[in-house]
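Researcher: Structure prediction, please.
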Amino acid sequence: MSEYSQSSYAQNAPPMHSAGAPSGGAAHASPAPAAPSKKIAIFAIVGSVIALVGSMVNWVVSDAEGATGGIKGIDGDGIITLIIALVAAILFIVAMATKKAALYLVGGVLGLAMAIVAAINMADPERLVTQKLKDDEGVSQKVAEKAAEQAAKLYEMTAGPGLYMVLIGALMALALGALGFMKARAAR
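Model: Predicted structure follows.
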């Protein structure tokens, strides 16, 4: 007999079946990955709602004396982000109920689209001023661009809080849509 068989650290091996696999193989298998939790969809919905509300808030503000507020997102590209955010929120609600990976993916892509629109408008605040002049005053594109350029020289025009809200909400929808997609695919 070996001196190790008397050790207090002896371990028993599980009984073997005739096939050579330990007994209870099914009981010891790793559990299947869980479907995306409702938290992912809820936070994605919150991101979409933040972008939706941001679409209706000031996108351009200036330091002009006597200026009240600014130009709201819905006076320009905010209509686009408002519609996209609404569709994304609905998709995330359905994704939460059905746990379908494709819905999370499409919601994330819509988040990317909102982020692109927000980034374009952040980089060029004069763009929204031009759109507002064209729509409200009925002037041509060339005249509106010239007036927006002159206004930019006279006053400091910056991105307003609405653009930041849209960007934050869009990035939340993008990230959580991608995460929900990956978790839903892993659960299959």
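Model: The chain has a mean pLDDT of 82.
Researcher: Thanks, that helps.
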